[in-house]
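Workshop exercise sheet. Pairs work together: one partner reads the sequence aloud, the other fills in the structure field after running the prediction. Swap roles for the next sheet.
Pair: D.N. / O.F.
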Amino acid sequence: MNYIYDVLLNFQKNYYEFFEWNKKDHIDHMRKVPIIKVSKKQFLEIKNNIIELEKNFIDKLNMKAETFKKNNITKSPYIFIIGTEYDCIAIKTNKKNIVNYKSSLQPSEQEEILKLLKLQKEIHLNYTIIKKIPQNNFKTRFEIENKNLILKELTKIYKQNNTQKINYLYLECFNKQELNIDKAYTKLKNEIEKSNKNFKKLYNIFKIINQK
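Structure field:
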């Protein structure tokens, strides 16, 4: 089995490219990580979906990765890198063998991994696609995370039955009133989903509200 040594990984539930990593993200400094070469088809399926890997395969890789922890090195369960000759990602599974976290790699480290993958034999992985992940090809991490934040805040206000705040948000967006809180909430929610100019208005309003 081949390994890559001394790499940084940023595991998130949503996959982000290296240039979208945030300073607040928890970064794992890995001493070593197993590398697996798969077909392009399997790579894209694993990258773009929530999948459950075959238990026998996971058991063979369990505790093979190692992480630097302060002055110690610890075994890390269920972490490995998959890729083709052209692309690769790091993945982490839970105890149920479901891939629930993924990480891109720094460009220099990715280049080194791709060189190793060119020398490896491709293996076939057995897995089940649990759920397809909607692709946000034209949205940045900032847009996705802030859209989710605003939707959460709007839903919270709606569940509190705060008619005054819902009416205020509606008036700011559409320059008219909607006294029916259900209709106002639904239309505001649709505007946030579209991520249009009204989304920017709502984002700025919630930003001001949260600063108070």
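Discussion prompt: The first strand starts at residue 2 and ends at 9. What would you look at next?
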